[in-house]
Amino acid sequence: MITTLVGRLEERAELAAFVTDAAGRALVLRGETGVGKSALLQDAAALAEREGHRVVRAAGVEAEAGLPYAGLHQFLYPLLGDAAQLDAGTRAVLDAVFGGGEGGPASVMALGIAVLNLLAHAAATRPLFLVLDDGQWLDDASADVYGFVGRRLAGSPVKLLLAVRSDLPSRFDTAALPELPIVPLPDADAAVLLDRSHPGLATSVRRAVLDQAQGNPLALLELPAHHAGRADDQFGLNGVPLPRRLRNLYGARITGLSDAVRAELLKGALDGVGVGAEDGVAPSPRYRMRDADEAVAAGLLEIEPGTDDFTFRHPLVRSTVVQMATPNQRRAAHQELARVHREHLERRATHLAAATVDPDEDVADILEAAAESATRRGGALAAVAWLTRAAELSENHADRSRRLADAAFVASHAGRLGQAHRLVLADLAAGTTDSPAGVLAAGYQALYQDGDVRSTHRLVSAAIEKLRDGVTEPDELLTRLVNLLTGLSAYAGDEASWERAHELFDSLSDLVSENSRLYSDVWSDVVRRGAGRAEAVEDAAATMQDLEPWELTRLGVTAYHLDLLSQFRPHLQRVVDRELETGAVASGLAMLHLIMLDQMAVGEWDEAERTGERVLTLAAEHGLELFVAQSRGYLAQLAALRGQVVRARDLQAEVEAWARPRGLGLLTQTADAAGAGAALSAGDFEAAYLFAAGVTTPGSFHAYAHQAPRMLLDLVEAALHTGRAEEAREHALAARDAGLPGISPRLALVTYGALAMTAETEREAAAMFALVEAHPDAARFPFEVARIRLAHGTRVRHVEGRAAARQYLLPAAEAFERLGAAGWSERAQAELRATGAAPRASMLHVATLTWQERRIADLAASGLTNKEIGTRMHLSPRTVSSHLYRIFPKLNITTRAALRDALSRTEELALV
């Protein structure tokens, strides 16, 4: 192959600057097939070596595009010697990618950070230059990590140069990395390249080649050898896309090879020969082509210097070899490659899946094991494909049905609800979706897409009864149905659903697992069934690395009800991105909800809002309306806490309109909690009382009302402020008598706080308040503690005087201000002023507006509508509205009419 580049002066100059620049960075070369991207990569890599860089090469392989982290292995494997210098946590993340550690790979962020650490150590003594060709064939997980790393190389001695085809979609299309477009050669340079590579061409042939190639270097090199004396349309391919023309040209050469050499090329092509090697070291055993000199002579292969290994001359040769092979030839090649990879489970499974035609239980078992491995590694989509193939290769109907059911279950959690339904229908012996597996898949689809809990609860209950009569020992399908019925009952949130579920679970006796019992108890009625269950959840936290994503999510929900979510959150944050990208999307969205709830609890409200908006967007994209409504409910609660009353009520109304007709008690109670919170923030205590009393009657905690214990302070405070002191006291005593302090740390705090607020003597009030202050977990719940301090300080002011109250009111005011709880902050400031304290200049609402927010605020202040603002700023009216929701609390206003004055005050403050 001609290696001397012709032309490309601008591109080479930019690449030279890229190589010699001391700063770390990434660059994407994008262009059509054969335009010269690979040659430019090679040229840049050679320059990097001359400049003293260590060069590591990798390339995407079409046959491995579905194999999770196959592309990541190529870059990491040659650098693993440097991993010994890393900390244990980083090594564990990297080990998991290679299957050498416990658990599965973490999220893109965690993996990306681990890779960045490894690259930093590898480049400590010698700059590192990473070269990636054919990026469009990378598996999604690897491409996302490369994108993450590429955006964060600034300040390091590491560079990443990669090439992708412009005619094929790839994950790098949205990676936000700098790009250098590689266009065809101009006419003059094309002529020079042709004349150098094929001197002495007849004028007519030369003209035809230049016309056909249109400046594509690969075409200029390859077309002349096939002119055959034809004129004009000498190849008979005018109008055919250039990549296909070149493929046909390579095909003619491949056809001329002996059968043995073609077989060697096919095995090499299917196994990515020549990809990711450095000094003869590959990330996993690759097939090594032998006796292929004939292909070298035909211009299809090259010999790698230093190793004498055969490599493909161009990626297009590799894909042409595969496309030209017959199905039987490909299967034979895959069979031999499966033997090469017998120690690598997932790679072996990939080849066996393609090699096997007739039912084979041994192969099906291997595919099933690979699917389980992929699921734990964030590869749920790959797992569905392997399980489906395993079902096709099953030797009996029972195993086929079981594997199809497993595939449908994983597909449901991966957000592929339609695919899950089709997988169940593929079980022809069952014939309908009335089979237990069919009910399982249809149940998740009905729940996630439509929020249908009523009819789905009946169907799942019937399926459990049907399966119960034929099962004598714990069964995985039965367990999955039990867990689905638990989820349906939780979303229904009513007594009838839960009583029916518990009746069924009791009839199953030992067939229900301990974890499933734990979920049904805590999710249903934490007041009556949650005592003593915290230890089981804490013990489970030690096994998080080994849990499947849906099991991790269920434990996380259990931890939320017991206020132990902070223990699970670090692991949830490590794996959530992984699941949203290639894994269990539905579980990933639930993980985001859990992360958001913990962020709200610990006072990270800005982060919570970003998380809520993210899950809202993702849920809408996947058509999972249940998660859309749930996200709005949590965002409504957050808006209420922050004093964004209008937004809270708007979101509350949206949730109500969707959830109440469907009987989704969990969501309607969430909406009621948001309504009560917004009313309290606005000082409308009568409305707050009505919302809180609608969830549970004062003096009791309604069975299966999950928000009842969480709204304890709301009901008590609203009752006190509306002259219902007896009801408030009765409710606080009911919390104590129900044993709420023994269930969770948060419930202990709010129970002691309620007893302090309603105490009949000052001695009792002081004693209960002291329990709040002394509680070891008080710092984890800053909003609740601030509320209790405000109420206690107000009581002390009336009884002991102004000076005594300040010690409680001042930390309460500071906490509300720090959290961004506007309404509560104003109330605390008013109480402080009543004690004679000097007015404090609140910094709560002078947060700096971004440029975009300031522009929107200015336009709104001038009287423009959201639609008019959107037209000017190229935004949708809905986006403008969302920005205004964030702008108003920053400026301490609630209406558009107040914008102009607020902006003026902000400018005055900036001048002080």
Describe this structure in words.
- This protein is mainly α and 912 residues long.
- Helices cover 63% and strands 4% of the residues.
- A 5-stranded parallel sheet has the order 2-3-4-1-5, with helices on both faces. The protein has a two-stranded antiparallel ribbon with strand order 6-7.
- Strand 6 and strand 7 form a beta hairpin.
- The protein is globular and about 105 Å long.
- It starts with 8 loop residues before the first helix and ends with a helix.
- Mean pLDDT is 84; it is low at 228-240, 276-283, 428-433, 841-847 and 908-912.
Strands, helices and their partners?
Blueprint: H1 9-20, E1 25-31, H2 37-50, E2 54-59, H3 70-76, H4 88-97, H5 108-122, E3 128-133, H6 140-150, E4 158-165, E5 179-181, H7 187-197, H8 203-213, H9 217-222, H10 242-255, H11 259-270, H12 293-297, E6 301-303, E7 310-312, H13 315-324, H14 327-340, H15 345-355, H16 361-376, H17 380-392, H18 397-413, H19 417-425, H20 436-450, H21 454-468, H22 476-492, H23 495-508, H24 514-524, H25 526-529, H26 534-541, H27 549-561, H28 565-582, H29 585-602, H30 605-621, H31 625-641, H32 645-659, H33 665-682, H34 685-695, H35 712-721, H36 725-737, H37 745-758, H38 762-774, H39 782-800, H40 802-819, H41 822-834, H42 851-861, H43 866-873, H44 877-890, H45 899-911
Parallel strand pairs: 1-4, 1-5, 2-3, 3-4
Antiparallel strand pairs: 6-7
Helix pairs in contact: 1-2, 4-5, 5-6, 10-13, 11-13, 11-14, 14-15, 15-16, 16-17, 17-18, 18-19, 18-20, 19-20, 20-21, 20-22, 21-22, 21-23, 22-23, 22-24, 24-27, 27-28, 27-29, 28-29, 29-30, 29-31, 30-31, 31-32, 31-33, 32-33, 33-34, 34-35, 35-36, 35-37, 36-37, 37-38, 37-39, 38-39, 39-40, 40-41, 42-44, ...
